[in-house]
Amino acid sequence: MTCHDRRTRGRIHGSNLLCWACLTWAGLLRGDPFPTPSPRLTSLPLAGSFEAINGPDAPIRYVWRNSQIVASLDKGGMVSIGSRGGSGLQISFAGANDRSEPQGESRSALKTWYYIGISKNWHVDEHFERVRYREIYPGIDLVFLISRGQLEYSFEIAPGADAGAIRIRYGGLTPNLAPGGNLEVGEDRFHMVQRRPQAKGHVRRHWVEIPCHYRIRRQEVSIELGAYDRSSAIVIDPVLTFSTYLGGSGFDAIFAATTDSAGNLYVSGETSSGSLRNPSIPVRSSYDAFVAKLNSAGNQILYLVYLGGSDYDGANGIAVDAFGNAYLTGATTSPDFPVTNGVLAATAPGAENAFVAKVNPIGQLQYATYLGGATWNFGSSIAVDASGAAYIAGQTSSTSFPVTSGAFQTTYQGGVSDCFVSKLNATGSALVYSTLLGGSELDLCSGIAVDATDNAYVTGTTYSVNFPMQSAVQGALFGTASAFVAKINPSGKGLLYSTYVGGSGTDFGNAIAVDSSGSAYIAGATSSVDFPVTAGVVQNALNGYYNAFVAKLSASGNSFVYASYVGGSSSDTATSIAVDSSGRAILGGFTDSANFPLAGAIQSSLGGNFDAFATVVDPAAATLVFSSYLGGSGDDGAYAVVAAPGNNLYLAGMTASTNFPTAAALQPSFAAEYDAFIAELNYFGAPAPVSVTPSSGSGATQTFAFAFSDSAGASNIASVQIIINSSLTRTNGCAFLYGSNVVYLANNAGNFGSSLPIGSAGTEQNSQCTLNVGASSVALSGNTLTVNVALSFTPAFAGTQNVYLWVENATLESNWVQEGTWTVPAASGPAPLSVTPSSGSGLTQTLAFAFSDPAGASDILSVQIIINSSLSRTNGCAFYFYGGASNIIYLADNAGDFGSSLPIGTAGTQQNSQCAVNAGASSVVAAGNTLTLNLALSFTSAFAGAQDVYLYAQNATVGSNWVQEGTWTVP
Known about the structure:
Helix content is 0%, strand content 51%.
C-alpha cells in the first residue's frame, strides 16, 4: 500500500514535532573456516565533532573525519562523504538555497592547531558539536551532528513549511528502497544504508510518533509524512549505516559476545593474525584466543588481549560480571598456555584442555587456568554469578576429569564424550563444584546460563538413550540425537529438571538463555518432522532438510511455553540466542535457504552459498518481529548474538565474502580466506491486525471492536485504518482512520477530511454510514490496541461488506488483512437519511431533515426529531411530524410531552424553554422515496452547547431505529 499522504493521515495537535533516522556503522572483524555445526562497530576512535576549516579566500567549511572516513560540509548543503581509499559519494539537496552557509553550533573545547610555514604563525580551527544550514528550504533548517560516534543529519521544519520541498540526491547514483523501508545507495566498495525515517513530535509535553517514509522519484528521494497539524514544527533525521572489515594477515574469528551494564561490547574468538589491527604483520605460528572490549558507542577498542601458547588456543565463550571483568573459556593444546600462580591447574592435564581466564576492566589478566582430565577436554560456554564465580560447560573424554565430592554425576558414563559443568571460585583457585552430565553415548554441552539464585541451565546434544532425566517434558530419545535442557541446583548435587527436546530425526541444542522468571530459551537445529512445536507459533512444520528452532520452557521445566521451527526449504541452523527486556527471543545463525522467513529485513535475498541471519520473535513466538539475511557472495555465518538497548542487537560471526555489505569501511578490502564480522542491527516490531468483534453478522447499527497488536506495546501503534466495503477501497465505502486519539471518516471519494476526538460528542457521516464518535472509545492493554466504533449504515449500502484492517507504528506497517464480514440490510421501511447542514452553530437555522421509504415518500406516516445532548425529549428541542394530508408539527414541552400543533406552512410558532419553530417559514417536500421536512428554528441561549440531532421515522406498520445524523452548537 502507498500511504503517508500528508493530507489524509492522522492529525496531531501541538508543536515541536520530530521525524528522524540516524547514521550508524556496522563493523567487521575477520574469521576462520566454518566449524561443523554443533549497523555499527569500529575498532578505532571516531571524531566526535566538526572542525571549522578557515580557507584564506573561501567560506568556512566543516569537516568530520575518522581513520577511514572524511565528510565535508560545504555551502548550499553540499556534503561529500568518502573513504581514505578514494571511494565515496556526494549528497546534495535539489532546489536548496545555494546561499545557505554552514554555521557551527555548540562549540567544543577541542581545537586543531596548524603551524603556517610562510607566515610563521600558528593557526587554530575551532570544533563544534553541530552544524546548521539555515533556510536550506523555505522554513526548513538542515542540521548535522554527531550522535554516539555516528554522523547524523536532520531537517527542522518550521510551522507552515512544506516538508515535501525536501529532495535528496546521491551524486548521480540511483538509490533503492529495501524491505523494511531502508534506503540503499552506493557502488563497488562504498555502500551506504540510510535507515527508514522515524517521526516524533513534542505535543503538550509528550512525545508522539508520526508515520513517515521515503519515496524515490527517478534519482531523487523525498520524505513523506503522515498527516499532522501544519501549525506544528517537525524535524526529519535520516540515518546512514556503514560497515567495515577489520582483520589481520591470517584467520580471525569471533565465537562469543556479550555486553556489560554500561553498554560496552565484548567479543572473543581465535586468531592466527600477527595483529588484528594491522594486516601487514605476518601470521602467528599458531592460533591464539583473544578478547576485545569496545565502548558503548562501538567506536573505540578499549582493550585487545591475546591469550595463547605455542600451539592451538581458541576462545568459545565469554561472560562479564557486574564490575566489568570478562571471563573466557575455550580449548588449548598449548603446554605453555599462560596460566597464573595459585590457580586450579597450572599444568596441562591432557593433550587438549579447556581453559578459564579472567580479565579485569582495563584488560589485565587476573587468572588463567587449565581445566580437564588426561585425554581431551573442550570448554564451550561460560556464565558468571554475582559473586564472580564462573560456570563452565563443555565436554570431556577423560575418565579423570576433576569432579567434586557429592556432585550429581561423578563417573564417566562412556561413549565418545560426556558433558561437564564446573563452577570455579572468584579467584580461579578451586572448584566450588564440578559434575559430569551424560549417558553411554556421545554427549555435548554447548551453552550455559545462570539465574539470580545461582541455578545453572545447560543445553547441548545427546545421542544417549540413558541421558539423565528429571521432571522431563520429554522423557525419551525419539531419534538419532536430541537436544536437551538441564537445570542444576546451586550446589551442583542435583538436577531440578532435565529433558530431551526433539523428534524422530536429529536435533542439536546450540545455545541457551534464561530470563528473570527462570524460563529457559534454547536455540538449535532439527531435521525432525515431529519436533514438539506448540500451537500458534510462527512456523509449525519442517520446511527443509534442517530448520533452526527456538523453544521456551516454563520455570519448572515440565512444559513448553512455545516451540517453533524457523527456516526455509534447505538448511538453517541457529547457533546463538539472547532475550531482550520485552521477552523477545533473538536468534543468530546461518542459512542456505533462498526462502528463509523474513520480516523488516535489511537484506531480502540470499547472497551466497550460506548467509548469516538474525531473527527476533515476539514473546509468544507467534510472529516474527524481525528477520534478515546478512552476507555477500561467499559463505557467511553468525555465531554470537547479543540483545542491546533500544531494539538493537549485535550479530557476530565470520564471512568468506569479498563483497560482504560494507560502507566507508575502516578496512575496505577483504584480507584473507575468512574474515569475522560484528554488526549492530536495529529491529522493530511490525504491528498487526488481530480481529474484529463481531467477526460477522447483520444490521443497520453495530458497535464494532477492532483489535491490533504491536510487540513493543499498544502505545507504540501510531495509526490504524478500517475499510468496510465490498472490496479493498475507501471509495463509496465506510472507511475511517484512527490515530492520536482522533478519528476520521472518509468521504464518498475516499478522502479523509475533518476529524473528531474519539469519545467526544458528535458524528461523522457519508452516504454509506455514520460514525458516532461520542459512543466510540479506545482501550490499550499490553500489546493490544482496541478501537470500539459505533456505526450505523444507510440502506443504500445494503449487501455483504468485507471488513479490512491495517496498522502501523513509527517505522513499520502491516499488510491489509480481511478480518470479517458484515451484512447491511436493504431498506424495508422508512429510515432517517440525513440532516442538512449536518453540523454548525447559531441561534437561528432552517434545518432540512430527510427520510426515505422504499415504498415512496407518501408511505411515511410520521417522523420524530430530537435535538438534545442525549436521546431524550425532556428539556430538549423535540418535534413530532404527522404527514399525509395533515402535515402537522408538534413541539414537545420541557417535560417532553407533545401538546398543541400547527399545520406546516401556516402562520404561527410553537416554543419551549429551549427553542421555537416557525411553522409559517417551514415546509415539507415529498420527492420519490424521500420526504424532507424543512423546519425554521430558533434556539434560546439557555440551550447553549453542542447538541446532537436524532431522527426516527415510521409508516403504518414499522418504525425505524433512532439514528444520530448530525450536531448543532447553540452559542
